[in-house]
Hints:
45% helix; Rossmann fold; 4 domains; four-stranded parallel beta sheet; seven-stranded mixed beta sheet; alpha/beta; elongated
Amino acid sequence: MKAIIAKRVDSGTPDTSEIRDLAEAAGYTVVGEITQSRKADPALQLGEGKAEELADEVAVTGATTVIFDNRLGPYQTYNLGQLLPEGVEVIDRFTLILEIFGQRAQTRKAQLQVELAELRYELPRAEAKTSLAKRDEHPGFMGLGEYDESREQDIKNQISRIKDELERIEQTEEHRRERRRDSGFDLVALAGYTNAGKSTLLRRLAADLDVEENEDLHPDLDTTAESQDKLFTTLGTTTRRADIEPRDVLVTDTVGFISDLPHWLVESFKSTLDSVYRADLVLLVVDVSEDIDEIHEKLVTCHDTLYERNEAPIVTVLNKIDKVDEEELAEKREALSALAPNPVTVSARKGTNVEKLLERIDRELPDWEEERLLLPMTDDTMSVVSWLHDNAHVEDVAYGDEDVVVSFEARPAVISQARSRASELRTAAAESA
């Protein structure tokens, strides 16, 4: 699919690098671009002369799609379509993002979130079409098609239905997270922008089979959390066990942030970030090879998003140090010190400093506590001892004639549960005596 990129900015030089990446992520081949620096034209987004230049470029290149890195209103879309050769589609940045999301959505949750975002994108357009058609008593207003007053309510009903189903899915996932935490797992979440290297880092940290957040299936390691130079490779969440002895740590990779997203789109995918908000530790992954101003802006946005509901400590991971020299890295660390006062520098691709990151994760996670339990010898005692071996670091087990003494280290939640089980054993032993 051939595409022309178009972008207008109020002032300065338009940067089309990200919209090109987005277009390529969606499967388009970019064959040209048209940019302009001026105030937006209400009818065409671009000025009339520049819009005609766009039409000429489409005709010369044979492009089938024009992708605007601006938000287009329905009438701008229609007017641009009238200027372009027949059959050429005009889409904007947010339609493109939804297209990518739709391609990447593999789980039920991801598919619902895409559908929700599409409906939220369509709703104001349906409302505008209905309002204008009523006002002008012209059902085919400006060639936008017949309006259907019931469509607006239908969209609202679908949004409500999807939100209810997403809430049920999230409740199931929350129960799963709590079971993992009760079983002694520390939960670590990877956050950051797309292409920062989160999926590559997850593969470096992984030490066991996948544990899917959204499914009970366990896909092969080669096909999950792919380390590809693509945007939105990871749309859903992927969770793996990390090798940090004696802890049991699960690390979750989440959908990446992207700049300049409208509120309705962020809201549609907010439940994906619940894995971040409910983690014991967040690793904020940053591409340190990017321009310092861009890194700073992204860190500010990430902090605004993460600190909104997150209470866990956040560790900044400056990734891709293999792409910068030591002097540049030092300069960027200094410039970012206010936002990332004590970052870990790594190269997930080459494995550099990954051991240091694992040590930092261990230090930042909640401290384990030591415990020594006296268990009465009953029919159920060995199952409790076995459970402790699975969910704690057992240092010693001493067997007596009538009791068992277990010394171990574990998370506070596991110790609390172990005490409860020991109390149940003592109650059962007293009742049978």
